[in-house]
Amino acid sequence: MPSLETTPHPLLLGLRRSGLIASGDRVLVAVSGGPDSTALLLALDEEGHAVVAAHYDHALQPGSGRGADHVRGLCERLGVDVLIERRESPMPRGSVQAGARTLRYEFLERARARAGADVVAIAHTADDVVEGVVLHLLRGCGLAGLRGMPARRGVFVRPLLSVWRSDVADYLHRRGIEALQDPANTNDAYARVRVRRDILPALERDRPGIVRRFHQAAIRAAALQESISGVAGSALEAGATRSAVASAPEPVAAEMMRQLYARAGGAQPSLSRAHLTAMLRLAEAGPGGRGVDLPGGLRFRIVGETMQIVAPNADHRPAPRLEVSACDGCGDMTAAHLRPDLELHLGYRTPGLTMRPLGGRGTRKLQDIFVDARVPREDRDAWPLVFAGDSLAVVPGIAVSAEMATRVGEPSLHVTVCGIPAKVESLNSLPGEPS
User: How far apart are CA 46 and CA 12, in angstroms?
Assistant: First the structure.
């Protein structure tokens, strides 16, 4: 559709200035049929981008199929391909809004693959940013919530975050396009509708211009959050350790947790303030063996110094293997060095096991050794142990028996175990050799 004006419309300027869609990108546009998504589809087509529309019918209201018919007709007039899907499975448990959002984004991922699109464009506007900021403030939020919503998350982009709904309405009016109006946008059962209809107008009447100031604050918060994200990402690349989190400022530490969750396959956004608080508390100094359950069936835990997010019962490790060879007392600190007269075998923990650890003070229970090493409870029964007869000789990666250890340079058994349940500090973190 050619441009109808010599001076670019504010909506087109906002789209261009976002810098989120490159000239060669193939764009999947999420189109509900409402004003914002309709304007985004038209604008991208007008700007000459290769676009495919995608419409998801949540089937939550009588006659919801009319929305799909409207979008199909619009795309036919524009000459744009469209992918349409209607929900046939039950809604997920919990909030209807959250469940609808999950299903919609799952559909958009499928549609992107079918269309071979580089990015998925979502039509959130500056008004949505402000409404999101107010909602987050009412619930209690940190810096990430103050930005309203990110302009990009993976392949999903929001190129209209600087464009106001008044600009959208004017853009459609000038082109003679009539969009659908979603009844949910007037349903005051939803907090966002109450913010839009009641709270923001009241604030604007009392403090004219405050809506625009909220938007500017969100822009500054987004820039600061982007910087924090970079610092957190660099810190994780250097090592996802408890001490790295403990030494970081709280905003950076929280962002490290978000990114760790995302790298483990966690859906975004999913972590609540309560989740982040629990994760940060676990990273503080203290006994190990605890964990935090997270959305998506994942679990956050700390093993030794290493932070992990794992799927419970998703253990595909090979069976542990004991490797023993003769040694002249080498300096390999990743192995245990034991007396050459010992007959060794693998086993697992049983009640009452004790050991006098190398470099420690006195005899200790295996349970206490695990706690000090921050081994999660769910891993302890599966942790392979090295025995000499009935006596505990090595807790791999954690402790070596002082009675059975040899000095550097003495003939020894060079002992390693492959397949321990999780990465912990290697044996070079253990106390030094006996003097």
Answer: 9
Which class is 10-206 in CATH?
alpha beta
Rounded Cα distance between 93 and 325, Å, is: 55
In angstroms, the CA 215 to CA 219 distance is: 6
Q: Where are the domains of the chain?
A: 10-206, 321-429
Contact, 430 vs 353, CB < 8 A? no
- Four-residue CA torsion sign, 292, 295, 299, 300: negative
List the alpha helices (DSSP H) in 156-298. 165-174, 191-194, 200-206, 210-238, 242-246, 250-263, 273-282
Nearest to 85 by CA among 61, 100, 70, 65: 65
Whether 119 and 155 have beta carbons less than 8 Å apart is answered as yes
pLDDT in tens, 230-281: 999 998 888 878 888 888 998 899 999 998 888 887 876 678 888 898 899 8
Helices (runs of H) and strands (runs of E) counted in the chain: 15, 18
- Measured CA distances, 65 to 68, 85, 181 (Å): 5, 10, 14
Task: Determine the 3-state secondary structure of 203 from DSSP.
Answer: helix
Q: How far apart are CA 25 and CA 2, in angstroms?
A: 19
> Could you tell me if 34 and 127 are in contact, meaning their C-beta atoms sit under 8 angstroms apart?
no
Would you say how long the chain is, in residues?
435
